[in-house]
Amino acid sequence: MNVEDLVKTSGEWLRGTGPESDIVISSRIRLARNLADYPFVNRADDSTRLEIVETLREPLTDVPVPSRMHYVRVDELEPIDRRLLVERQLISHEHAEMPGPRAVALSEHENVSLMVNEEDHLRIQVIHSGLALDECWEEINKIDDSIEEHVTYAFSDQLGYLTACPTNVGTGIRCSVMMHLPALSMTKEIQKVVNALHKINLAVRGLYGEGSQAMGDFYQISNQVTLGRSERSILSTLKDVVPSIIKYERRVRDALVKDNRDDLHDQIARAYGTLRSAQKISSEETMHLLSSVRMGVNLGLIDDLEIQTINELFIYTQPAHLQVLKHQTLSNSERNVVRAAFLRDRLSGRQNGS
Amino acid sequence: MKCNFCPKPATLHITDLHKGVVKTIHLCNSCAQKHIADLTADVETDPAQPNEATAVSMLQLHLAEVTEESEEQEQQRCPICGITYQEFRKRGRLGCPNDYTLFAEPLTPLLENIHGSTQHTGKIPRRTPAESRKKYELIRLRNELRQAIRDENYEEAAKLRDQIRTLEQQQASE
Ligand SMILES: [Zn+2]
Ligand SMILES: [Zn+2]
Fold first, then answer.
1. Which of A202, A237, B3, B166 could cross-link A197 (Cys pair, CB 3.0–4.6 Å)?
2. B153: which DSSP letter?
């Protein structure tokens, strides 16, 4: 598989068609697993890590998924291609940067990615568009069972699946929902949501880093506790809480439209205008403006643009994507020029109906 | 006052909000730098992904909350992977599945603090935990084999190879 071909396609989870996909971008579940007959990755030397990569090759390419699996040696990729996989959310930043033999098994539709030798021997991940946690769980559970037919997982009666970090022990599960909450961010109501979620042990993270205002108004909500509760019960906590956040965001959007329609429409139209005409634009500004435009489409204030296009632009305007697309290394300032040209092309082309 | 994550003296005292409770943690210079680096991810080099680095500093906060272990407990070494509890405290990662059994005493309050529970109630793999435990021996034997090969002790290596093969065959036929 040529990783750089990814810039010509887009992941199925970006299509923006799942349930509640105006507000919920994607649902994702990951399971942390370790083989019983190897030390954890941080205590494994390179030859041991290589054995783990080879031991898992067949079990991981045989998993029951609708599209073909590709096994990619991450340590043999060019740095730019590793960055591309990170931007694509197929591997973690840590997995891209860490040393030693490691791999990822990817499904062609980009719904499934199985990281080998990240913090744990195996990180199984399934992602779907919209609010689709049950769909993710069913698929990931089958994948997990299928891998277990070939290998013995480190597991104890008392502590469940044993992981390198005690924060993941037990179910090894992290269920998360990526939400786009521009109205709650704009009105600072988001802080109330964050506080309420912390009280029930759910983590809220911005799409980038840890700032209180997430870039592009994206928030990932996920469980923290992995021990002492079943997978189903962890899932149901999220399934209970996410619809009320969606309702809250919709209510604030309606209020904004009702009370400040002209201001809101102006802000969104200006954002759209800037994206279609800027000659240089940073990735932060792009995220910020795309977020406004995305809300504008959802509110019917912009009618010549599809959600999928916007979802894709969030990914395609990032540094590695731009450089792979241009087949060259670009400085920060050069990237800002290329990014602006790319946005003008993708957005104004549509307006002319071409 | 000692640093919460290593034996060095603490020079920095950080107040963090954790689970709605204000906590002060005490850090030496080097741990403080790491702690701060974990909390602030660089935007341009860390795109597209909610960072898991937070998980590291969260663990450190939990570690800071549980009482310190005796010197003896801190120095106890895992016969399978060679890690000590002190090394775990410092790096936040265990070395092998056996460590959960070996360090059960200090880990129990930590797990209680993180998860509010110490009993798994989720999915159970088809293979039994007993099968899983028997495999730990393979970790130790393979480590010794690698060491023997590094030391060019081929006689020992051959013996270890036989032991590994026997154990693997035993387990495969069970
Ligand atoms: Zn220290
Ligand atoms: Zn160990």
1. A202
2. -
Number of H helices, E strands in chain A: 11, 10
Q: What tens digit of pLDDT does each residue of B98-153 get? A: 999 999 999 999 999 999 999 999 999 887 777 778 888 888 888 889 889 988 99
**Counting ligands in written order, which one lies closest to the CA of residue B7?**
1
When CB atoms are compared, the residue of B46, B111, B142 closest to A227 is B111
pLDDT in tens, A36-45: 999 999 999 9
Radius of gyration of chain B (CA): 20
Q: Which domain holds residue B38?
A: 1-75
The number of domains in chain B is 3
Residues 6 or more apart in contact with residue B1 via CB below 8 angstroms = B9, B10, B26
Examine the domain organization and report whether B59 and B99 are in the same domain.
Answer: no
ipTM given for this complex: 0.88
Measured between CB atoms, does A47 come within 8 Å of chain B? yes
Same domain? B5 vs B70: yes
The list of chain A residues with pLDDT below 70 reads 207-214, 349-354
* 3-state SS track over A185-251: HHCCCHHHHHHHHHHCCEEEEECCCCCCCCHHHEEEEEECCCCCCCHHHHHHHHHHHHHHHHHHHHH
Interface of A with B in 254-273 (CB under 8 A): none
Class (C level, CATH) for A3-248: alpha beta
Q: In this structure, which ligand is nearest to the CA of B81?
A: 2
Of A40, A156, A231, the CB nearest to B129: A156
Closest chain A residue to B17 measured between Cα atoms? A198
Q: Chain B contacts of A36, Cβ < 8 Å?
A: 97, 131-133, 135-136
Buried b (16+ CB within 10 A) or exposed e, B87-119: bbbbbbbbbbbbbbbbbeebbeebbebbbeebe
A112, A65 contact by CB (below 8 A) = yes
Q: In angstroms, what is the span from residue B104 Cα to ligand 1's centroid?
A: 24
Residue A43 touches chain B, beta carbons under 8 Å: yes
Whole-number Å distance, alpha carbon A51 to ligand 2 midpoint, is 19
Name the residue ranges covered by the structural domains of chain A: 3-248, 260-347
Between CA A198 and CA A115 the distance in angstroms is 29
- Asked if the Cβ–Cβ distance from A160 to B129 is below 8 Å, we say no
Contacts of B52 in chain A (CB under 8 A): 92-94, 119
Q: How far apart (Å, rounded) are the C-alpha atoms in residues A288 and B85?
A: 45
In the 8-state DSSP scheme, what is residue A167? Answer: T
